[in-house]
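Supplementary Text 2. Reproducibility record for the structural model of the 531-residue chain.

All settings were left at their defaults, and a single model was retained for analysis rather than an ensemble. We include the record here because the model underlies the residue-level annotations in Supplementary Table 4.
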Amino acid sequence: MSRLLAGHPHGSRSLMWFRRDLRVRDNTALHEAANAATRGVVATFVLCPEQWRKHDDAPAKVEFWLRNLQELKSALSRLNIPLVVVQAPRASSVPALLVSLAERTKCDALYFNCEYEFDERQRDDSVAEAFRARGLAIHSRHDHVLFEPGSIRTQADRPYSVFTPFKRNALRRVAEQDLAVLPVPPKQAEIEVASTSVPIAIDGFKSPVDPSQWPAGEDAALKQLRLFCGSGIDEYAHARDFPALDGTSRLSPYLSAGILSPRQCLAAAVRLRRSTSVSKPGAGASTWVDELLWREFYHHVVALFPRVSMGRAFRPETDRIRWRDDPECFERWTQGQTGVPIVDAAMRQLSTVGWMHNRLRMISAMYLSKDLFIDWRLGEQHFMRHLVDGDLAANNGGWQWCASTGCDAAPYFRVFNPVTQSERFDRQGEFLRAWLPELAHVQGKAIHDPGRLAANVRKHLSYPMPMVDRTATKQRVMAAFRSVSGHARSNIVASPWPTPTQSDATPRLASRRTISCTSVAASRAPLAPSG
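Retained model, structure tokens:
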């Protein structure tokens, strides 16, 4: 069948809309756009600071996007694909902006890779409607995930809400299906459209993070992937839990922004897992595959249960819990001044490098939601505002797991003891001393809990006392969750892809993820008492 479209006697031209897929290798939509075009390809990226603010995108993440856009522009130029960067004052203006660009550059088809959050899906539906109204074709592809959301289902033909059976099913699919990594698309004929400049900064998104922490571009991402697979992955199953070690992949920013695809990572891990050095159960490659599938699982949850994109708990009955409204305690948590060393070191790492070790994300999230009993949504928002790898699906999934409000979450009675966690995963206090200079000279186990020091020694430390009594806080958590456990668990219904059902599109809070202690307290009444 001919690929020529009516209205373009000299062939077809593709408009490729980049979002969180800033790469030329293994880019599904780009690959199809380039192979379908006979009159070249035009690439575009839409800057939308208003939406980024609404979605709490971190300055470090925006700065990372811009640096990677510059690298992408160079990679595309080698393929004779110009990159046209445009700015939208608001998300609602994106459809008209893209239609205008398509018509101005004589493109007759739009290609893009799907995004799964509720706002993004609504925007993309509006873009599709606008293009079709002008007789322009539109092609969306699933690329940010391994499998189309909703395609991995239980025997009862429902989407999974528990990770382990989801993982088993996904691993079967990996073994059965071809998840081949696509090559760089073919070079295009030169066209009359010129690239535009990529801004080096966006007003309101000045990043405090040293850019050298996160080198930009596909080559840098692939170099880090090769480095991890060549050495670090063998010890990953053990070393990933110890924040003082360089035991994680450090690939999360590249996956979040789409500098790497999940298929590239999976292919690298599968090759290693099949080798003799990592063939034993629980080896590093297998453990890393599990982590990639956790990412996949949470993206499926976001796509199929839109309520989690709108500030709602996955388990609706837990929306009845009345969390503590304590701005002062919350502020101390954000500043790393809780008096709990492992939590404070984690929070200071976040504010300095725009990233936090995964074990520490769990410890600090559970401390806020369980020990301080402050709404997990405030912590989720704070993380998004600082993480270079901020991703709604992974961040929301992790926070709801820790707060016991999500799918396959930790039982509400599981409350990490941060001192025990610190002693177990930073035994010598190396990580603590790196981030807490006021405790640098504290020796022995007291580094994990300065309260163990003699009073005449403790008083000379310029370090705060713990904010709460952990015994009392655990009792408070137990009482609060028991108070809602008597309510029948709501029937949690997944929406079909791609259109969310109206019944699941619950009213959002002030915006998708913009909340405060006051708005949390005022937005859901009546609520169950916290005890």
